[in-house]
Amino acid sequence: MSDTMREYEHEACQQGFFHIAGVDEVGRGPLAGPVVSAAVIVPEDFSGTGVTDSKRLSPGVRKRLYEEIYSHARAVGIGIVDPVEIDRINIFQASLTAMCMAVGNLAPAPECLLVDGQYPIGMDLPQKTIIKGDSRSISIAAASIVAKVTRDRIMELYGTDFPEYGFSSHKGYPTKAHTAAIRDHGWCPIHRRSFKGVCEHSHRYYNFNGRGART
Q: Which residues contact 12 (CB under 8 A, 6 or more apart)?
């Protein structure tokens, strides 16, 4: 593990903070499913070998590191905002809300935050925003892995509920197969109806009994 991945954690320690939480979210881009955030406090002796931006890792490596993070972390918090709320407040606000929820679910509570991206979250805690933080901070990288695996597992469960859409493979992202399924079957309860790619089909809804779309 490169020392550069611990630079922000070391800086926070020098400022007197002990419980330092990395915060990240996944799921801004999909047409369906929730946005999921994680907040993770890793101990100083956490090896973190291989921990980096979750998008750079294979599903198998992510799952292995997910288990390692949960086994060694001082605390892990999860925040989930569902598609209905995403449509109500927009995806940007939903992402910030999910991050606040994740931080609020940490025990012990953090003393400061390292937040992926350029926007601070609405909590009265010292925080540092870090663009591309999931590849620059061990805490944020750990949070990105936990959030990604958590969301993938949620979407795999939805895949059994709505097999016509193939959620278990594309996780709700706008692949050709997914957009074709929306055209064929209409939207289902976990689709984000305010998103382009779904809103065009707002007149068609999923028929649970007939397993198809109605107009």
A: 20, 112, 114, 128
User: Which distant-in-sequence residues (6+ apart) come within 8 Å of 144 by Cβ?
Assistant: 24, 26, 38, 53, 54, 55, 116, 134
Q: Note the helical H segments in the chain.
A: 7-14, 59-72, 83-89, 91-104, 138-161, 167-170, 176-185
Could you tell me if residue 205 is left (phi over 0), alpha (psi between -120 and 50 degrees) or otherwise beta?
Answer: beta
Specify the 3-state DSSP secondary structure of 207.
strand
Is the pLDDT at 210 greater than 60, yes or no?
no
In CATH, 3-158 is 1.10.10.10:
no
Domain positions in the chain: 3-158, 162-202
**pTM as predicted:** 0.93
